[in-house]
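Example 3.2
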Amino acid sequence: MFSSLGCESRWYEIGKDHRRIITVVIKSGHMCDLKSGVLYVRVVRRSDKWVPARVRGPRCVAGCGGLLPRYCEAQAAGAALLYALNHTDYSERFLAYRAVRDTPHDIRALLSDCYVRIITCKHAAPQVVLETHLANLVSCCVLAADGAHFVELGVRGAAGDALRRPRVQCDSRELAAWVARHAAYARQLYHEHVHTLLPADL
């Protein structure tokens, strides 16, 4: 007798010849009729339709070069937030997510292959403070003023107007550099995708 995954099981030897020994594993709750050689399985159904809670959030499966990235709980939360904000548009791929200002401001950067979003989570529901399509993102750089650290985004208007330069304050220069670096990476990926000719287009 042995236990596997909490289910008590028994080994039954139901037949033997010169070539092999036939062995059947019966889990508790099942019944084997050794005389007729028929295995009866009792199916247990739950009437309350209870579904166990998810152990961990869905992960991002599109890594650099198409490789599968290591699971990260924070990035899984970022992916869930992205698809909650874009109404489950799975054609938009998650890239990166990080908190850039701590409480009480609670500012976070959320990047996909289409948008750069700056979000505040200090209220009950997350609110988008800044949303820029990568086609309109011209530049991103790190600035420091009066002891504070900022990432400045150069954003082109929809009608090709003069550049707007919104700034996002971060808790440290390292966080500002992270936002600028990942925004530049997302912008490069977007333009490479736009200008890549697929075999069907040749």
